[in-house]
Each structure stands twice: as C-alpha cells, then as structure tokens.
Amino acid sequence: MNTVTTVQQLRDAVAQARRAGQRIGLVPTMGNLHAGHVSLIEQARRSADFIVASIFVNPLQFGANEDLDKYPRTLAEDQDKLAAAGCNLLFTPTVAEMYPNGMDGQTRVLVPGVSEGLCGTSRPGHFEGVATVVCKLFNMVQPDMAVFGEKDYQQLAVIRTLVRDLNLPIEIQGAPIVRAADGLALSSRNGYLSAEQRSVAPALYRSLQQLAERLRNGETDHAALVAEARRSQEAAGFRPDYLEIREASSLRPATADDRNLVLLAAAYLGNTRLIDNLCVER
Ligand code: PAF
C-alpha cells in the first residue's frame, strides 16, 4: 500500500489504476482505525478493485468547543491495519493541502433537510463541514463507489442526498455497525472513556434495543416511549443529548403509521459524546 499526501500524487496513482481498467472504491476516514473501519475496506473490496482510503481529521466539521485537538492520531498503526485489510492507496493530506486558500473563504456544500435536527442541532455546521470535505474527496478521487459506516446514520443520509442532488456518478454503500461483544458500537471516541464509563457505555445500545422491542410489540406512543428510554439512559449514568424515532429513509419524525423506523441517540458519558442507532421494522 502506498501513502500519498498531495492531491497530485493521489490523482496520478488513481489515474494509473483506472488506466489498468480497475474499478475505484473510496473509504474516507479520520483515522484511529478500528474493526469498524476495517469492515469498510473489506466491503469496498467486494465491489471495487483498487481501494483508496483517506485519513484526514477535518477541522471544518468540528465546532469550536469540540475535540479537534485531542482527536486521536495514530498514523503508523492505521497504515498497518489498512495494508492488512487490502487497501491499495492511502491519502493523508495536511490541512493546507485540503484547504490551500484557508477555511474561511472555502466554498461549502450545504445539504438541507437531512442535515437538520439530531446531530445537526447539537453540532451546528458539522454536516456542512462533512459534506464539503466528502465532496472534495469525491472530486479528487472520482471513485466509482464509496463506503460509509451506518453508525453515522445521519451522515450517510447527508452523503446520499448530496450525491443525488449534485448528480455525482458514485455508488454509495452503507456498512453495518460493528459492535464490541457487549454491544457498544465501535468508535474512535470510545478511547476517551474511563474504565468505569466503558462498563456503562453498552447501556446506550440496550436502551435502543428495549425501545425497539416495544415498537415491534405494537406500542405507538412515541413520546412516552422516548421519555422512558431517556430515563433509562439517565439511570445508567448518561446525559442524553437526543433520542428520536425517525422514518428510516427520509429521516422525518416517524408517525404511528410508519413501518420502517430508525432510533437515533446521542448521549454524554462525562465529556464523551457517544452516538448509536438501530433500525426497526414493525
Ligand atoms: O465519518 C467520518 O470519519 C468523517 O465524518 C468523514 C466521512 C471521513 C468526513 O471527514
């Protein structure tokens, strides 16, 4: 696996693969890779011949009081994991390479609708930063397909909408959430948790499972179900940010008639904000 740092090197390497008739797959990441990221590479390999991964901790998608500075950077370990997973090319640009004219005047991509509410409310500007950097990566690599984790369910919806609305000829695939044995969704931010917080953390997923079970059993009072699930999160030691029942594909608030639902949660354990989600059919 080669690692390149400039857009020109990236374009040259991808052009060579394309000339050889290879289908290009892209897996954008912010590094500090875990088994969830490895599953994205493995999924990309099933649909493409030449896999490009990017590692870029994108300042544009972090709020002023968020964890940009302490976000874990583990390039050497990440390179080993990507190579072992069969990634062909790693792109690790600097901030100056991605935003050569600075970030203030950077053209931005705004995806209305699906960016609003949920993480869009808790993290103003976050999805604009995500959509902008993903659009730039798409233009730099021009992949045939790209894979994103379903753990960031709203992000995946934003990217699908951006690809549709801007007519980008890229197949977007979602990859299932990878969980630890106790149910906690893998996330780079799990590394911020103390041992005690880590033992509490799976309660977030359990609260979603319990809520899903009650929906499948025919309960339709969403407000009451959500209030109860929030109480169970609080009792476990979480400070809930949001917990919502949405229609799974449009992300609009679900009605009692909707059959395909997604439960979306964000909650704090100390200063660490965890997100999770669970799809439910009823
Ligand atoms: O999900 C992530 O790691 C990031 O939001 C992404 C898609 C790589 C954009 O910076």
Short descriptors:
282 residues; globular; ATP-binding; Rossmann fold; alpha/beta; ATP binding; Pantoate_ligase; ligase; Pantothenate synthetase; 2 domains; 10 helices; 3-stranded antiparallel β-sheet
3D structure, described in words:
The protein is built from 10 helices and 9 strands. The longest helix is centred in the middle third of the chain and has 16 residues, at 126-141. It has 2 domains: 2-175, 3-Layer(aba) Sandwich (Rossmann fold); 188-281, Pantoate-beta-alanine ligase, C-terminal domain (Pantoate--beta-alanine Ligase, Chain: A,domain 2), CATH 3.30.1300. Strand 5, helix 7 (153-165) and strand 6 form a beta-alpha-beta unit. The protein has helices spanning 7-19, 35-47, 75-85, 95-98, 119-122, 126-141, 153-165, 195-200, 203-216, 222-236; strands at 2-4, 24-29, 50-55, 89-91, 145-149, 171-175, 239-247, 260-269, 272-281. The chain is an alpha/beta fold and 282 residues long. Helix 6 (126-141) packs across helix 7 (153-165) and helix 9 packs antiparallel against helix 10 (222-236). 39% of the residues lie in helices and 20% in strands. It has a 6-stranded parallel β-sheet, with helices on both faces. Bound molecules: pantoate.
N-to-C order of helices and strands? EHEHEHEHHHEHEHHHEEE
How many extended strands? 9
The domain count comes to: 2
**Which CATH top level class of the largest domain fits?**
Alpha Beta
CATH topology assignment of the largest domain: Rossmann fold
**What global shape is seen?**
globular
Strand order of the largest sheet: 1-4-3-2-5-6
**What distance separates the N and C termini?**
45 Å
